[in-house]
Amino acid sequence: MTLYKAACMPGDGIGPEIIAEGRKVLDAAGEKFGFDIEWTDYDTGAEKYLKTGELITEDELKELSGYPAIYFGAIGDERVKPGILEKGILLSMRFYFDEYVNLRPVKLLKGVETPLANKKPEDIDFVVVRENTEDFYVGIGSRAKAGKQRDELSVMRELYSVKFGVDVETDADELAYQIGVLSRQGSKRVMDYAFSLAESRDKKVTSVDKANVLTDVYGLWREVFEETKKSYPDVATEYNFVDAVTMWFVKNPEWFDVLVTPNMFGDIITDLGAMIQGGLGLAPGGNINPKGTSMFEPIHGSAPKYRGKNVANPLATIWAGSLLLDTLGEKEAANAVVSSIEHSIEKKAVTRDMGGSMRTSDIGEWISKDILNG
């Protein structure tokens, strides 16, 4: 029997409840398909921060780098200023482990209603591959007031490092600026991932950008896409501006197979994708380093008002577990998890938000049994 080691971070709010259901399902999938997952729990989140002032330590990051996968529940707490936990934990891990792919499946399951008129499951089944470490999310920028100032800004990555010296002279009362960074290497590797994924699907990749306005930064993106597609002659390609993509997601989602996008635009269009597949309660995400440590999570928040009430919907977390299995190479098990999620929806074995009457703690049991009996 194959043994995998994985880290588990339940997090805040409903996180511990939904991650518990996800682990039930992954353990059942292992029993069915002949592998085992050895879990190591990490206490990371608001409670630890409030008690110790620590977010995630260098020692913890080094230890976590020994795991191929991290299963993450949710993060966020009303007692902590917004952004502190997200930047100090999630973004720290994303950059430390160089998780340069954000993977978001957009798939309408049977039994789920979409807000799009007359669209069926066969019409909504695509994947967004979002570059996850560059663009305007590198976190460098500043504010300036009237007069002169000099700002020293830098980005330090395993892939490269860059420093900016910015001289600002203005008569404005106050202004702010943010610097976006795209590299040829960073763009190429996420595009290779997208093309390889498309080869296993319907062999089509759509590049998303705004090169008609932001000509330098996204002009480079287009150049790299043109170069990359030459290595994948069997994959059809097209370009789409991000504003047009939002329109076509609503009008003709069946047009898309794999989309590859810079960081900021990917963040925007994947939330729209989540809604057309039935809402945030069904939207999983993966932060992936194909050769290192990857992290898998639901994309919804920690919903602290529902903490401990046993009513939270764990399906997005369970689906994120399917992405974890797929990344480990257990593709048959990963597909079985998604199929059983779909069965639970068709049988109305769901929580109240989806029209059912089951508790959070019932869902993992139901899906686990469906996998084992499948």
**How much β-strand is present in the residues?**
25-35%
Element string (H = helix, E = strand): EHEHHEHEEEEHEHEHEHEEHHH
Low-confidence spans: none
Helix content: 25-40%
Q: How are the strands of the biggest sheet laid out side by side?
A: 2-1-3-12-11-4-5-10-8-9
The CATH C-level class name of the largest domain: Alpha Beta
Q: Describe the biggest sheet?
A: 10 strands, mixed
Q: How many separate structural domains?
A: 3
In CATH, the architecture of the largest domain is: 3-Layer(aba) Sandwich
Which geometry do the CA atoms define? globular
- Please identify the structural class as seen in this structure: alpha/beta
What do these coordinates show?
The protein is an alpha/beta fold and 374 residues long. It contains eleven helices and twelve strands. The strands form two sheets. Strands 2-1-3-12-11-4-5-10-8-9 form a ten-stranded mixed beta sheet, with helices on both faces.
